[in-house]
TrEMBL record:
First-level EC class: transferase
Classification via NCBIfam families: PRK00026.1, trmD
Keywords carried by this UniProt record: Cytoplasm, Methyltransferase, S-adenosyl-L-methionine, Transferase, tRNA processing
Binding site for S-adenosyl-L-methionine: 113, 133-138
Compartments reported by the entry: Cytoplasm
Protein name from the UniProt record: tRNA (guanine-N(1)-)-methyltransferase
One GO BP: tRNA N1-guanine methylation
Gene3D superfamilies: 3.40.1280.10, tRNA(m1g37)methyltransferase, domain 2
Subunit composition and interactions: Homodimer.
Length: 239
């Protein structure tokens, strides 16, 4: 899968995505991250990419021309118009299901805004999806793009070395994950729950599932409306 990130701050994105699991996935050619500096496409002789908003108001607006030309360079490179995500607090809030869906694309373009945002006319021309990473306002779309690349890449086959770790995680099946423990069995006077030391895999699985239901009920009860629940789960919830 290829990610194409349109930004004014390429170094920020490159530094943020070249380590750990995502860095390894790039090295193994499981994903490709193509960072494009919008400024390289400006026709302004001072390399300007933003200007004052028509109608007045605070801040600067990113101009249409350099963004459009940068986008066209990607389209020319891949030979078609891939989905283009504009990161914006005005978009649909990103969630795990969307990460899974995006992971099926061959190419995905991200447009990172900055300052007061982007000239609406170029958004109308190139953007197919408006996505927010949460109800708060950030200074730019770079962190949101990195968040999305990370979450989507984890859904690309082969990126997670232990396939299982992707399928038991929080939000899979609509529930939060059970608590995790590692060595030693006693730390700071706190014991690991006995069942995890029992070697009885059926019991462990059922304990973990109960813990998931309880955690979801306690921390994110609204998720239970969409979760896949058994009769036993419902009984547990109603207790
Ligand atoms: N004036 C814009 C508005 O009210 O919608 C906000 C501009 S914000 C300061 C600058 C850029 O940061 C945006 O163009 C967008 O790309 C990015 N951004 C800020 N908050 C975001 C969020 N919650 N999710 C995704 N992108 C965000």
């Amino acid at each position: 899968m290829r990610f194409h990130i349109l930004t004014l701050f390429p170094e920020m994105v490159m530094q943020g995505l070249n380590t750990s699991i995502i860095g390894n996935a790039v090295e193994q050619n499981l994903i490709e991250i193509n960072v494009i500096n919008i400024r390289d496409f400006t026709k302004d002789r001072h390399k300007k990419v933003d200007d004052y908003p028509y109608g007045g108001g605070a801040g600067m607006v990113m101009q249409a021309q350099p963004i459009y030309d940068a986008w066209k360079s990607i389209v020319a490179q891949v030979g078609y118009e891939p989905r283009c995500v504009y990161l914006t607090p005005q978009g649909q809030v990103f969630a795990q299901g969307m990460a899974k869906e995006y992971a099926r694309e061959e190419d995905l373009i991200f447009l990172c805004g900055h300052y007061e945002g982007v000239d609406e006319r170029v958004l109308e021309e190139i953007v197919t999806d408006y996505v927010s990473i949460g109800d708060y306002v950030l200074t730019g779309g770079e962190l949101p793009a990195m968040v999305m690349v990370d979450a989507i890449s984890r859904m690309v086959p082969g990126v997670l070395t232990n396939e299982e770790s992707g399928s038991t995680e929080s939000l899979e099946g609509g529930l939060l994950e059970y608590p995790q423990y590692s060595r030693p069995a006693n730390w700071n006077g706190k014991e690991v729950p006995q069942v995890l030391l029992s070697g009885d895999h059926k019991k462990i699985e059922s304990w973990r599932h109960e813990q998931s239901v309880q955690r979801t009920l306690r921390n994110r009860p609204e998720l239970l409306e969409e979760a896949e629940l058994s009769r036993a789960d419902v009984k547990q919830i109603l207790k």
